[in-house]
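Listing S7. Sequence submitted for prediction.
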Amino acid sequence: MSNARLGRTVAERLRKKIAATKSPTGEAVTVSIGITDNTDHPDNLKILLERADIALYKAKNQGRNRTVIETSLKINVLA
C-alpha cells in the first residue's frame, strides 16, 4: 500500500469519526482532507504542500466531507 493510500485510510477513519460526533452546538461538523505523498520528490516540501492543497480543494469542490488523493506530477515549482 502506498503512503498516500495508507494516509487516505487513516484520514477516512478520522473524517467519519468527526462526522459522527455531535458538536457542542448540536450542529454536524464535517471535514475535507487532501492526501498526497512525495516519494518522487522526497526532499521537496513545497511540492508536497502544493499537492496536498490541490487535493484539499478538489475535495471541497467535489462536495465537501470527503478525502481526495492528489498524485499529479504536473506541478511546477520554482526552487
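Caption to Listing S7: primary sequence and predicted C-alpha cells for the chain studied. The two ends are 30 Å apart (CA to CA). Residues 75-79 have pLDDT under 50 and may be disordered.
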